[in-house]
Design goal:
Strand order of the largest sheet: 1-2
Number of domains: 1
Largest sheet: 2 strands, antiparallel
CATH architecture: Orthogonal Bundle
Order of helices and strands: HHEEHHHHHHHHHH
Strand content: under 5%
Radius of gyration: 20 Å
Helix content: 55-70%
Length: 353
């Protein structure tokens, strides 16, 4: 669901930026007074989780791929506004550093995954959750699974609508599409049906994780609904688990390769899109804007290679680099906020006296 540059015309991507901007603004206002507290590690961890989990591509019927987003878990565990901030930052790092998703399309990608998925998830969860999560594990899992499933499918549907409107909104005088050439009748069923399968994985990840948080008696509050306890970050089990997840990211390379799957639907190069759409050449607007941004580490690869082993190592290093960048951003924001509020002690420390 990472829409590349060139797929959306200016009418659409500008509208998406305008729609998502108020959510960014409110999320920042909500979080800015909390960035000097113990909530920094929670939101940073959530953003890093989203970044890494989206690197696990899985093959889908039809020869394409898809991935879990992780936004649903963050929305339930931390609340909607921390989730908007965490998911948006992960998408921004993926876009600017690794070229995963376009700069012009960043607003649309954040609207779909950091806003629509987050708020739909929260709505389904609040409707179906039990009052006592620990006493009703089956209902807890079911509500979290349904919330993750519906949230992801809603994000896929929004993405498909953005794709499908392009031939109507952005075309030449003779009707030739300038950007994404697939109409709604193609884009919607293809995107939604494929993500009905990915939604099962999103739901399972969300359900099992929320169930585990509830069983472990993690702190439950209005602002941070299922936030991990501070001691979590001192646990060797946590760091070992995190390392294992990062080391497993090459699965996102090998699984699609093993099953002969290609790129995710709607994320082709201009030439491959022309083949998929049976066009003599790529749409003019798409071809012009496809290479609008040259990221420092394109496609999570530091240098071209034919070796799967080298590619795997680069993928792991890219995952680690992304996590470090996200951590540094939140560390910087926290320090700036503590300075603004009068040097509040960093998370996990206590003022002298």
């Amino acid at each position: 669901m990472h829409i590349p540059d060139g797929y959306l015309g200016p009418k659409t991507w500008a509208t998406c930026y305008a729609l998502v901007a108020p959510f960014w603004w409110h999320a920042w206002r909500y979080m800015r007074t909390r960035l000097a507290t113990m909530e920094i590690p929670h939101v940073a961890l959530a953003s890093a989780f989203v970044f890494v989990v989206m690197m696990f591509n899985v093959p889908l019927p039809g020869g394409t791929t898809g991935h879990v987003v992780g936004a649903s878990l963050v929305a339930i565990a931390l609340g909607v506004w921390p989730a908007v901030l965490a998911v948006s930052l992960a998408l921004a790092i993926q876009c600017f550093v690794f070229g995963d998703g376009g700069i012009t399309a960043l607003g649309a990608n954040c609207l779909n995954m950091a806003v629509i998925q987050v708020f739909v998830t929260a709505g389904v969860w609040n409707f179906g959750r039990p009052k006592d999560l620990q006493a009703n594990p089956t209902q807890t899992f079911g509500a979290a699974f349904a919330a993750g499933y519906v949230g992801l499918v809603a994000a896929a549907f929004a993405t498909s609508v953005q794709f499908g409107l392009q031939p109507v909104l952005e075309r030449t005088a003779d009707g030739t599409p300038l950007y994404c050439p697939f109409p709604l009748r193609i884009a919607v069923p293809v995107m939604v049906i494929s993500h009905l399968l990915v939604g099962i994985m999103e739901g399972a990840v969300t359900g099992f994780a929320i169930l585990a948080l509830a069983r472990n008696r993690s702190a439950i509050s209005t602002d941070m609904q299922l936030a991990p306890r501070p001691g979590l970050y001192k646990s060797w089990r946590f760091w070992v688990s995190a390392a294992v997840v990062v080391l497993l990211v090459p699965v996102g390379i090998f699984l699609p390769h093993y099953f002969g799957a290609g790129d995710a639907w709607g994320e082709w190069s201009p030439e491959d899109l022309a083949k998929e759409a049976r066009m003599a050449e790529p749409p003019a607007g798409l071809a012009k804007n496809a290479d609008l941004w040259n990221p420092p580490v394109p496609d999570y690869a530091f240098s071209p290679t034919e070796s799967k082993a080298v590619e795997s190592v680069q993928y792991i290093v890219a995952a680690i680099a992304g996590v470090i960048l996200i951590s540094l951003v939140f560390l910087l924001l926290g320090r700036l906020q503590r300075r603004r509020l009068g040097n509040i002690p960093p998370p996990g420390t206590h003022a002298a006296g």
